[in-house]
Amino acid sequence: MALDRRRFLQITAAGVVATLTTSAPAAGTGVDVKALEEPDLLTMLGAERVREIGIRYRAATPNESTASSLRAALSATGPGTLLFRWSPAESIRSQIQADFAADRTVMLDGWVLSVTEAKQCALFSLTSA
Amino acid sequence: MHTDARTLDNGTVLEGDICIVGAGAAGITIALELMNSPVKVLLLEGGGFEYDPKLQDLYRGEIVGQPYYPLQAAALHYFGGTTGHWAGFCSTFDAIDFEKRAWVPHSGWPIRRQDLDPFYARAHQVLGLGPYKWDATDWKNGDADRTPLPVDPGVAWTKMWQFSPTRFGAKYRDAIVNAQNVHLYTNANVCEVEANEGMRKVNAVRIRTFEGKEFRARAKTYVLACHTIQNARLLLASNRQARNGLGNANDLVGRYFMEHLEMPGADMVLAKPESTKTKIYALDFGLRTPRGELALTAAKQREYRILNGTASVDPGNPNDPEFSTFQFFDTTLLAAMRAWDKAGRKGPPPIVAKLGAAAAGPPQAVPRFFHLKTRQEQSPNPNSRVTLSTEKDALGMPRARLDWQLTELDKRSIRTYYEVLGRELGRTGIGRVQIRDWLLNDDRSWPSFLSGGWHHMGTTRMNNDPKQGVVDANCRVHGLSNLFIGGAAVYATAGAVNPTLTLVALALRLSDHLKTKV
């Protein structure tokens, strides 16, 4: 039986909701906490380095040194807007790419990083201990 | 023909049409070009056919300014010159290397890259390189894994190196010795260039041997094709008629000494190592498979006002000890490599054992982590110079005194290169870059492992204005109608790549010019 477009969208939406409910949304943001707190950099650099980068970011950016302020910054409007709220991880990846393209980068411990992933590292350093 | 100069009678006068001083890559290339012509060539080589510590000691010099490698170990003084121990790295200069760049003081050559193109192609033959192809896509060799990193071609690109197997001494000895119109004299150390009374023309060169003999060589035309430092030293030491040395009316001889900065600059971590191709960047020591290094485009160099440079991409581990070129190739390893080479290259080269010891852990099955090592030109700097020491060598000639100096632009360019590359690798999702600590503090200090690549350039730089250069576009010394310079001493800027291919191309170009003159 062929699936019509309307039925396909309903199923897909339900699937996304099911996925999102497996982790709690950040307070007041409606955004998946896990996607914010676990940067893709973990695979590349490992938890220890990501944590170290996060600590350095927080030290350099005192107004973004708490978990709530970082979550808010990561899901804020403006340059940091999450483009695809139904897929936070993809949205953050897209944001990171845009950061690099627009030179919204920071250097922490010598690493050339997008500001978005630097905030993720900072959040990780607070929530992973 | 060949004569050991030690067998000549004291006071002998050698006569020829062209006298070439120095039988290294440049001198031998010119002699080969003039072979089988009516021109009588005198080729004067200070060393013999083999490495001799006593002769090598003539290259010992004084180091002031930035720390530098012992000069007597940085270049070879025998037939074949420094190609007797080189690794054969060859690549072409870029068009931007020849341009006058507003942000690079004293930059600009009187020739363009396209002027050298035909000579580069001919130089491939002399050096025994592969096809004259320099696009990374030409070197996939049918291997899909040899694919350059997919970066924006407007930002970065993969610059290729080919590897020459040619040791000029071994390869061209028979041809030179058997040539009817080329007379090679070994153990003939030129200690002075003598000009006529008005100092408009060279009359002769004076030669000495360790045996205390002294004689002269006379020709219509002279080419100084010694090593970069030695060319300057010889002109400066030719100071009986001109207090500041010959060809030095404008105090330029010895200035603008340049090196390539070869130092660990950053590390790279791949996001998806399983699907990222890096094989084209691999160095197969001894196999001479062409390999790539990452370069920034001319447009990005202009945008960020930086020098030209590349980075090699070498798999490793985060805690590996990383060495600059001078650190890794200490004089002990250099001597071991020379002995291995002389013994017929049997067994693994000593460098392999040292590489093994340097690795902190087992090699990664699929490399994720890479060391990025800088290879960058230094900004032409009049204060970076060769002068004469008060100490004399065994032949009574003042030794060279090297005052290697660097500028803020040199260091800023390395850091900026990695910042731009890091952003591009992040944007493309290829990976991330971590810049090394020594690049992050200030732009004036240099670390203890500061290193060049034994690439000595400048000291008799090319410029059509006598007040800005020692030689003109034809490599003729300003003010002297019959004196020419061969070798990397004429480089106005250093480019990012190893100098020998360009040096041979320029020697071929000079040869063509000389053929029209003699």
Task: Describe the SSE topology.
The complex is a heterodimer of chains A (129) and B (518).
Chain A: H1 5-20, H2 33-37, H3 41-45, H4 47-60, H5 67-74, H6 88-101, E1 105-108, E2 111-114, H7 115-127
Chain B: E1 2-4, E2 13-15, E3 18-21, H1 25-34, E4 41-44, H2 53-56, E5 62-65, H3 71-74, E6 89-90, H4 95-98, H5 113-127, E7 156-163, H6 168-178, E8 182-186, E9 189-195, E10 202-208, E11 214-218, E12 221-224, H7 228-237, E13 260-270, E14 291-296, H8 298-304, E15 309-315, H9 325-328, H10 331-342, H11 350-358, E16 369-377, E17 385-392, E18 398-404, H12 408-427, E19 431-435, E20 483-485, H13 500-517
Task: Tell me about this structure.
- The complex is a heterodimer of chains A (129) and B (518).
- Chain A is mainly alpha-helical and 129 residues long.
- Chain A has one domain (32-127).
- Chain A is built from 7 helices and 2 strands; from the N terminus they run ααααααββα.
- Chain A has a two-stranded antiparallel sheet with strand order 1-2.
- In chain A, strand 1 and strand 2 (111-114) form a beta hairpin.
- In chain A, helix 4 (47-60) crosses helix 7 (115-127) and helix 5 (67-74) packs antiparallel against helix 7.
- In chain B, 25% of the residues lie in helices and 22% in strands.
- Chain B has 13 helices and 20 strands.
- Chain B has helices at residues 25-34, 53-56, 71-74, 95-98, 113-127, 168-178, 228-237, 298-304, 325-328, 331-342, 350-358, 408-427, 500-517; strands at 2-4, 13-15, 18-21, 41-44, 62-65, 89-90, 156-163, 182-186, 189-195, 202-208, 214-218, 221-224, 260-270, 291-296, 309-315, 369-377, 385-392, 398-404, 431-435, 483-485.
- In chain B, the strands form 4 sheets. Chain B has a 7-stranded antiparallel β-sheet with strand order 6-7-14-15-16-13-19. Chain B has a 6-stranded parallel β-sheet with strand order 1-8-4-3-12-20. Chain B has a 4-stranded mixed β-sheet with strand order 2-11-10-9.
- Chain B is globular.
- The two termini of chain B are 21 Å apart.
- Classes of the chains: A mainly alpha (129), B alpha/beta (518).
- The interface between A and B is medium-sized, with 20 and 22 residues.
